[in-house]
Amino acid sequence: MKMIVARDYEELSKKAADKIVQVIENKPNAVLGLATGSTPVGMYKQLVAYNKDKLVDFSYVTTFNLDEYLGIPAEHPQSYQYFMKDNLFNHINIDQSKTHVPNGMAEDIELECKTYDEMIRAHGGIDIQVLGIGNNGHIGFNEPDDELIVGTHVTSLTQDTIKANARFFDSMDEVPTKAITMGLGDIMKAKEIILIASGEAKADIISKLLAGKIDTQVPASLLQVHPNVTVIVDEVAAKLIK
Ligand code: GLP
């Protein structure tokens, strides 16, 4: 696992965006695995700026997002589909038919999960997967558990995660309790992974992630056995690393 400690959030966002640009430079039709949450917002801003300055071309790129809330329509401002359009897809020269976010409104959810995994496979797998990290160590929406699931699946969110997500909704009853997420197998099959984390709240989980042990109660700890992972954090998020 490589580790980059950036000075601050701005530098972290630029370093993460540069990694993506590098992958697209080497392979113009790269397949990107993308994440939502507050952490990647700065990275997306940087990618939009690079695209505007013609430093990166997304016209042959395909994307697959990690996850989506269950039961929230794509047009809902808190859906991950909406987030991706708002933060990235609407501002770059990507062919939007090449962007994929799991459909949390699918009538047949089992089929949606199966088809999502098949589509990733049919595109030759993910070239670079971007990950944030939940305070409890979740990646995508793979929550701490005794067992972790390999493929895309429906999952119940933990109380911790529901509470963390509540800041985006008007009331507690509106916060989704279930989501559809790529599984640990989908993530681990990516050729390259970058995990980004910023701020005080992530310091504890970042130190656990690098503890040299694999624990399904810290799903991100599995990344330690992937051959090409770069963890990019700012100084505050790195402060508990021994
Ligand atoms: C959500 C997303 C994750 C993300 C996490 C952390 O749970 N499903 O993919 O990593 O939030 O979000 P933030 O970056 O806002 O801390």
Could you walk me through the main structural features you see in this protein, from its secondary elements to its overall organization?
The chain has 7 helices and 10 strands. The protein has 242 residues and is of the alpha/beta class. It has a 7-stranded parallel sheet, covered by helices on one side. A 3-stranded antiparallel sheet has the order 4-8-7, covered by helices on one side. Strand 2 (31-34), helix 2 (41-52) and strand 3 (62-65) form a beta-alpha-beta unit. The protein binds 2-amino-2-deoxy-6-O-phosphono-alpha-D-glucopyranose.
Strand and helix layout:
Elements: E1 2-6, H1 9-26, E2 31-34, H2 41-52, E3 62-65, E4 67-69, H3 80-87, E5 99-100, H4 109-122, E6 128-131, E7 153-156, H5 159-165, E8 178-181, H6 184-188, E9 192-197, H7 203-209, E10 229-234
Parallel strand pairs: 1-10, 2-3, 2-6, 3-5, 6-9, 9-10
Antiparallel strand pairs: 4-8, 7-8
The protein binds 2-amino-2-deoxy-6-O-phosphono-alpha-D-glucopyranose (GLP).
Short key terms for the protein model shown above:
single chain, 242 residues, alpha/beta, Rossmann fold, seven-stranded parallel β-sheet, three-stranded antiparallel β-sheet, 7 helices, 17% strand, binds 2-amino-2-deoxy-6-O-phosphono-alpha-D-glucopyranose
Q: What's the short version?
A:
The protein has 242 residues and is an alpha/beta fold. The radius of gyration is 17 Å and the shape is globular.
Kindly provide the radius of gyration, computed on alpha-carbon positions and rounded to a whole number of angstroms. 17 Å
Structural class: alpha/beta
Strand content: 15-25%
**Into how many domains do the coordinates divide?**
1
Mean pLDDT: 96
**CATH fold node name:** Rossmann fold
CATH classification, class level? Alpha Beta
The total count of helices amounts to 7
Q: What is the 3D shape?
A: globular
In the sheet with the most strands, the strands line up as 1-10-9-6-2-3-5
Helix fraction, binned, reads 25-40%
Task: List cofactors, ions and other ligands.
Answer: 2-amino-2-deoxy-6-O-phosphono-alpha-D-glucopyranose
CATH architectural grouping: 3-Layer(aba) Sandwich
Order of helices and strands: EHEHEEHEHEEHEHEHE
Regions with pLDDT < 50 over 5+ consecutive residues? none
From the N-terminal CA to the C-terminal CA, the straight-line distance is: 15 Å
